[in-house]
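To whoever is on call:

I kicked off a structure prediction for a single chain this morning and the downstream step that reads the tokens threw a length-mismatch warning. I double-checked the sequence; it's 66 residues and nothing unusual in it as far as I can see. Pasting both halves so you can look.
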Amino acid sequence: MSEKNNNSVWTDTRGIAEHFDMKPNTLRKQRVKQSSTTLPYHLIGGNVRYNILECEKKVKENKKEF
């Protein structure tokens, strides 16, 4: 479940998938592979949580100019 609080930058798999217009299963597969394009995540109490700011920074770093 996504955090709806405007002060929160933490979200779950579904929330980050919606943020980046991806499918949640894509993120789950990336977590298993641990490739260079895997978004950074944290296990908090056994639950996977993503920091939106960290993920946006990672996407920006991996962006390729054509």
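Update from on-call: the warning came from a stale cache, not from the record. Cleared it. Sanity check on the structure: The two ends are 36 Å apart (CA to CA).
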